[in-house]
Input
Amino acid sequence: MEKKPLAETAVDRMEKVFGEHREYRRAHARGVIYEAIFSANGLGAEYTTATHLQGGEVKALARFSHSSPDPTWTDVMSPVKGLAVQFLLPDGGITNIVGVNSPIFLAKTPEAFTKILGVVTSFKKGKPRLRELAKLLIQYPESRAAIKIVQKMHAPASFATGRYHSIHAFYFIDKDGNRLPIKYEWEPDAGVETLTPKDAGSLPFGYYEWEIEDRLQKEPVSFRLNIVIGGEEDPTDDPTVAWPEERHKLTVGTLTILPKPAPEADERKFDPTAVTEGIECSEDQILHFRKAAYSISEERRNSEK
Ligand code: HEM
Output
């Protein structure tokens, strides 16, 4: 029998753990999508030839999401929230930045991620393979940091008050071909605000979607796009390691969410490896694995409609 590609096994396991939710994304299932405008301040032009960072405005789509692959989970059950942004470039192309409100990810390699999911599946079946889990955490000690962060994580008070990180590194390429390692951060103009677990516990289902819609009717919601410039010793291939806080950050523009929901765009896929000229993906294996996993999810959910 032919062996399945690992990305397919990973998506299958996500369905096993969280259930098969037809027509939904296989992760970050529940969310809302809005039209947006990105206004570049021109400071990025020194480091990259990417058109949307030269200065001036481009249209964009922004999808806020709860991370759970199960859309019936309450808002509080997924303290990790997402902001996926697709820039709609003047030449008809796109470039994406997909972020979450955590600076690091659980696994360094696709194999580690898929094995961890396999063990979680055993919990779901009521036969937890605890010894195997302990062995995995010894085999992949880098995964402990993200588990600790998520355990202690407080949900943002609103989709508008999360700081969203690309986690992966990318390279900016300037007009002379120089490569600069960077990570992205979306910094909320409303300020970072989180909820205590007690307050979060009292929120009704769908609160975040309702709150952002209500906020947009009253005031602008915007995020500054910061690029964090990597130092020589900062790993560009390891999403389990955060770069030091003191790294130089440069604001290259502002994303303003428009009070215009765009549900017709929800079919779209926000592939983090879809980047325009002037930007390159780093060597991070998880980043490249996501390309395949997102395509499998897109194919499944759209074929179910
Ligand atoms: C092994 C690693 C990962 C796998 C297998 C994976 C898998 C997936 C899948 C299958 C989807 C649904 C895609 C779709 O139907 O369009 C998704 C969505 C998403 N993932 Fe991941 N993911 C991984 C890592 C990450 C990381 C490191 C981040 C952090 C930035 C992240 C953030 C998101 C977000 C924000 C969405 C929602 C995008 C949207 O709104 O369309 N994922 N993920």
Q: What stands out?
A: The first strand starts at residue 31 and ends at 40.
